Amino acid sequence: MPEIAVLAGDYIGPEIMTAALKIFEAAQKVTQTTYTIKAYPFGGAAIDQTGSPLPEATLQGAKAADAVLLAAIGGPKWDQATERPEAGLLKLRKALNLFANIRPTKIPANLADASPLKREIAENTDFVIARELTSGIYFGQRYLKSEEAADTMFYSKTEIKRLLVTAFEMAQNRKKHVTVVDKANVLASSKLWRQVAQVVAMDYPEVTLDFEYVDAASMKIITQPTQFDVIATSNLFGDILSDEAASITGSIGTIASESKGVSGPNLYEPIHGSAPDIAGQGIANPISMINSVTMMLINTFQDTKTAGVIQQALDQTIAQGILTPDFGGTATTAVMTAAIINSIEKAA
Ligand code: ATP
Ligand code: MG
């Protein structure tokens, strides 16, 4: 039986995780599938229970699972902790060998008005950013003196290749278009990215490959986002472009992401934080967590059936205007969850 390690985390983390798991359970009944859910303490909640943000049992449980589902961790309660919740997340990412972060940018059906883009552009925006996670300037050498400073940006061919293979594989199942975003007019590492991309592309004759400088790409994400399918890029550029891409959807409360492990489980999580400002009020938007579940079902378990049941019910609920306050609605998390489950049961 497929096993999922669930890390609910802190503040709104457990609120949206509970909602998403209830919906997932209802969908499993419809498709007659069974997933084993194992919950582990993680982040601030784990500090409170065990003194460590990543207890050994959590680490082993995550490593042994087929997928890891994470809500959000951290917040002001642990600002003074000796080991902060975020340190646990860094350790977990390292232990799982997560090398690529996949972030879809798609404006949910019926929510195009929340986007700052023109409606017809918003409705047709559907691209994915594949960001390299293990290397680049974030892991370079640091040099800081009072009069000068430097950070090195290193990339090996192996690191570039595995990210690009992931990007081409995704493109193959999407709109068959990869855009490598770089700064190859000045950076040596970008030149290597281009060379490796040309070679990887030969294995994917149906996929179109093009290159875009990061400055131009950052404009196009706003002006012509419908031109993109899969954007493949380095750690630094991916970090920046991912947040830019999130902003054109109009709500941080809907977007999920996948971090791919080299050999072990992938990790699925909303892109937002633990939102301490709204925690405990029962008004957190569960969509990002629900989308994390469907992304996991499709990408790790190839269970498009169960994902489809959830997706359809979510779309219907949104279409009925049952939305949390971040989308101008009046529904609580619980009301929205109940409406989605109701729609799942009716469709069955
Ligand atoms: P972090 O440093 O962990 O990213 P943050 O404070 O920078 O945290 P978030 O926790 O993502 O950012 O919250 C940013 C804003 O978005 C907050 O006002 C928060 O309430 C809101 N927000 C985030 N997620 C949701 C959600 N699921 N539903 C409703 N509002 C949300
Ligand atoms: Mg933040």
From TrEMBL:
Q: Which UniProt keywords apply?
A: Amino-acid biosynthesis, Branched-chain amino acid biosynthesis, Leucine biosynthesis, Magnesium, Metal-binding, NAD, Oxidoreductase
Gene3D superfamilies (alphabetical): Isopropylmalate Dehydrogenase
A GO MF term: 3-isopropylmalate dehydrogenase activity
Q: Which residues form the Isopropylmalate dehydrogenase-like domain?
A: 3-340
Q: What class of enzyme is it?
A: oxidoreductase
Its EC number(s): 1.1.1.85
Q: Which family does it belong to?
A: Belongs to the isocitrate and isopropylmalate dehydrogenases family.
**Per its record, how is this protein called by name?**
3-isopropylmalate dehydrogenase
Q: Which organism is it from?
A: Agrilactobacillus yilanensis
Q: Gene behind this chain?
A: leuB
